[in-house]
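One-letter codes give the sequence; the integers encode the fold. A sample entry reads:
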Amino acid sequence: MDTQPAGSVVEDAPAEGVVHAALARKQPPPESPQGVKTRRWIIFCFWAIAGLLGLPIWYATTTVPRAALPLESMDAWASGQTCKLEFPVHVALAASHLDSATTTELAQQIQQGLDRQNKSPIHRLRVITSGHGTADRSADAQHTDLSSSSAVTSQIAATVNLVLDASYSHPVAKVQPFDPTLSIYHGSLPSNQPTAVSDLADFITTELLKLFVEEQITLDYLLNGQTAHQESLEDVDSSSIVEGYRKRSNRAFKYASTYHLTFSLFTGSASPSAWDIKAALDEYLSPFLASFSSVSKFSVDTQVQLYASLSSSLHGPQYDESSKQWTLMRSDLSAFINAAEWPLSPSIGVGPTINFVAYVPSPKQAPMVIEETGGTSWLIPQWGGVQILNSDMGQNNTVLSKHDLEPVVRIFAEQLESLIGLPQSPPSLPLRLSSLTRERAASLILSASSTLGSLSRLTLKLTSIAIPDNVADSVQKTIHHLETACSHLHEGHYDAALEHARIAEAQAEQAFFEPSMVGQVYFPDEHKVAVYVPLLGPMAVPLVMAALKEFKKFKQARSKTV
């Protein structure tokens, strides 16, 4: 049997001892308890700084400010639950030739007829006698107390003036064009015929309903989307009135407290070079602007430009041999203005600019008319009006006098009525202005209420957007002015209601389109993750790994002691 040489055993023993000695030298010395404690305190301090100082600072500097909004009140206004819009229209009955008892009886019968025949849920006509007492006290108990003479006078929207004239065998109604008065001409009322007063009351009732039928249908459609049927007015076409209101709204500018009117004279040659526009405006337009002051204010600007060329996009004008005239096609009217060379800046004034252009064509292209109608003026919706002055007025004069400009300014006045949305009836300017006041007040209240509802839904849907304190302040002001406007509507103070509704609408728009809030809408959470991960990742990894490593060592040390 072979035996291993003794020398080999002697050689392996020293090699194994060398390996154990080398491994013993590579092991770190045991860590003292004080060192372990110091390391743990360092890790704890890093985490304490990050948690107690870093996180609060980060939260304070990155938290989106969200002021408290009265969301329930905003939703209530948007749904129409807070204020029920009502429009009591007070009509004064003046009959100086009748005794007090007959006047009171007549007023009561008129009021009863109005209550019976008027089916509008929001527009109610209330008859007031010349002594400022309501015609039917029991029927008016739910309405505003009109005991104060000055208060009642300020609420009167129209006056029914009875005029005794023996030449009239039947009553005749005439609306005064520049006064809110409905004149009723009638013969004597025999005392032995009790039906005479009743017949006159029925006639006045019908005339009052005709006077305000367009306003009633318009307000019913504006607020409820439907129209009330008038039993006594079979010839009234509600659909045509609604269609007329839609067209009028499409033509008119959005309501503003101030409009800027720009009157421009553009000539295709060097003549005329001047016009007496100031005198013409003072004479023919200023009275209308003054009567409109309760609804909106106006600022006026004028300008003249010679050698004004027409827009290059026009197909015409084309010369018509049969009529010996230059004609413009209807398709050319919208492109008639040369916006590149004609100075018609829409930002001249503080409010929307309404442009009125008088164009005098050059002798080579005169006279110029519209081909389809043969007219010389047209309206551009939500922009202004244009009128062509042909050779009989413009080319033969170096200066257009006030007399020359009278028909021009009167046409501009008619165009201005359409551009500001003035109703077409009744045939009394003050009554149409008061009707427009009520219509504008209602539309502004609806607009402000709708904006509040949109803002409420936006804040609930986008929880990450900022809501500054000024937004909450604007919302509170909007609600306050809406409540005030609603109160004034119920009392019949429509000028004050319009003013508060205008402020409410402006405050609501300011709150909804707050720049700092709108910017947050386009900054989603994905963008925030993309910003924070590259910044906080390199800082968080060492802290987390150190904490995990120390926790692992703590568990190992604890298991050894056990």
User: Anything to note?
Assistant: Confidence is low (pLDDT under 50) at residues 132-151. The radius of gyration is 41 Å. The chain is about 50% helix and 15% strand. The chain has three domains: 87-243, 253-419, 436-521.
